[in-house]
Specification:
Blueprint: H1 3-9, H2 23-34, E1 45-50, H3 53-62, E2 74-81, H4 85-108, E3 112-113, E4 116-117, H5 122-131, E5 138-147
Antiparallel strand pairs: 1-2, 2-5, 3-5, 4-5
Helix pairs in contact: 2-4
Bound molecules: flavin mononucleotide (FMN).
The site of flavin mononucleotide (FMN) has 8 residues, from β4.
Length: 169
């Protein structure tokens, strides 16, 4: 698979097969995430793998846009560490780049994924902080349910010439 195929064909997947994912595959896609660029190379991310059905169901019940957790075999909570001033400034950007790698890596392994937003919604941040026992300076940015897809999505046409500007807007 080349990079263009992964970037263009990846879609948000919200229906998953009832099939477990090998731990080795999960570790590998988290490794992809850890190779993302980050400000000053501080790598402020943490990845919490959630497999327990009762935890996935609990989040699903309390989050308005996370119905897909019902069929997901697991989800990864991507959290930022806010220890340094640099991390406080850039954690969200750094973690977002890691998530993009995670999602493209999932696609490469034949898995589907979707970004479920947590930060900056205070009630969702608190929900995950409580459920996952996060320390004060660890903030959950997003939850990424991952699984073998049980839906086929069309590839949209997204290239728009008018979004490209030469020299000036
Ligand atoms: C910051 C962000 C927050 C999102 N939050 C949710 C969410 O809470 N629930 C959900 O089902 N999808 C969520 N999505 C997925 C978007 O709906 C999806 O990426 C968009 O519709 C484009 O579709 P595609 O991913 O298939 O290209 C989110 C995506 C981003 C980038």
């Amino acid at each position: 698979m080349n990079l263009k195929e992964a970037i263009v064909n990846r879609r948000s997947i919200r229906k998953f097969q009832n099939r477990e994912i090998d731990d080795k595959i999960i570790r590998e896609i988290i490794e992809y995430a850890m190779y993302a660029p980050s400000a000053k190379d501080e790598q402020p991310w943490h990845f919490i793998i959630i497999k327990k059905r009762e935890t996935l169901n609990l989040i699903e019940k309390k989050h308005p846009y996370a119905k897909m957790l019902k069929s997901a075999p697991l989800a990864i909570a991507v959290c930022g560490e806010l220890k340094s001033e640099n991390q406080q400034r850039y954690w969200m950007l750094d973690c977002s780049l890691a998530i993009q790698n995670l999602m493209l890596g999932s696609y490469e392994k034949g898995l589907g994924s979707v970004w479920v937003s947590i930060y900056p919604r205070e009630e969702r941040v608190k929900l995950l902080k409580d459920i996952l026992s996060l320390p004060d300076d660890i903030i959950p940015l997003a939850l990424i349910p991952i699984g073998y897809p049980n839906e086929i999505k069309k590839i949209p046409q997204r290239f728009k010439e008018e979004k490209i500007h030469l020299e000036k807007f």
